[in-house]
Amino acid sequence: MTLDADRQIAKAVFHIGERTSMRLDVDVSTTGLLSIGALVSMILLSTAVVVRAAMAPRRASAEAVR
Fold first, then answer.
1. Number of domain units in the chain
2. Between residues 25 and 4, the one the model is more confident about
């Protein structure tokens, strides 16, 4: 496996109070960044479908009760 020349690198440090901190380092290739974007898009689209289905009127279950 070879490393690509154009990689996206992000670093962050979070401090919570005086004694707690968290350091985050991310190193992603361009292909990996596109894959992450596709995964997030699919999750958001599937969530919208589930919410729409949950909000739809329930005609079939109302007829089954009668």
1. 1
2. 25
